[in-house]
HPF/RaiA family ribosome-associated protein (Terrimonas ginsenosidimutans), 124 residues
Amino acid sequence: MDIIIQSLGFKASDALEGFIREKLNNLKSDRIVRANVVLYKGAAGSPESDYCEIRLEVPGNDHFVKKHSQHFETSASECVDILTQMLKQARDKHVDARQADAIRIQDQLMEGGEDDVELEDVVK
């Protein structure tokens, strides 16, 4: 997985970038192509002014999360936690769809009653 970290308006420390890379490498998915991370500071008056945006590029729709807190590390951790949930939901949805297709094919084969029903006819 390719990880691109951008810090807008300041220079992110190596420790912060290492922390973010470590968190993102813990994401379990073979489908992730790239992770784009943008760090920036919000308005100076608000106490939770450190923002973290993470976009995971995957085939199909990308996953995007934006969080803010007092520290970039906290924001990044919250983003990764939410992305983990999003990836799990997408995986479960994909598995459920495959299982539904298998059940539908099995039902059609059982209702056919003919011995010469081929799988290609059912799938079409």
Q: What stands out?
A: The mean pLDDT is 85. The chain has one domain: 2-89.
